[in-house]
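Structural prep section.
Before we set up the soaks we want a predicted structure of the protein with zinc ion in place, mainly to decide which crystallisation condition to try first. Input record follows.
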Amino acid sequence: MTDCVFCKIVDGELPSRDVYEDRSVLAFLDANPLAPGHTLVIPKEHAAKLEDVVEAPAVWDVTRKLAPEVAEAVDAPAYNVGVNNGSAAGQEVPHVHMHIVPRFPDDGGNPIHAVQPNPPELSDDDLDGIAEKIRRTRDEAAADD
Ligand code: 5GP
Ligand code: ZN
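Run finished without errors. Recording the tokens verbatim:
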């Protein structure tokens, strides 16, 4: 996509500090790192969201192998992996990317649960209903395939 910043990185029109590349996946350092080694893993194809990625298994496979290597390189004993999928979830660049964020003891950060500081109170009935709705949605999607 012509005005996509990550497509421009893939095409070499914008600079990036690459740490991994293959036929379908590129990984490079985040320009505004939350920690040393903060890395973004992207599909080379333009895809706005996770559900749009044709090469999704390749992106996941690179992420799970690269993440511990990133952490080791910066002496981090742990890391978070996450995706802001959609603008309401905080996605700013509309080309899907997995964040690998190295974590250190007492670094002042939070677990992934911090994405929602005001969780709703859901009863057992609420949860049963939600689970049923998801299963139904899945069945409908499978029927459409
Ligand atoms: P999002 O909020 O979409 O999940 O995160 C976008 C990430 O992309 C941010 O962490 C931001 O620092 C990073 N980013 C935005 N533009 C560029 C860029 O041109 N180069 C690099 N390396 N990272 C970028
Ligand atoms: Zn793109």
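Observations: The longest helix spans residues 124-144.
Flagged for discussion at group meeting.
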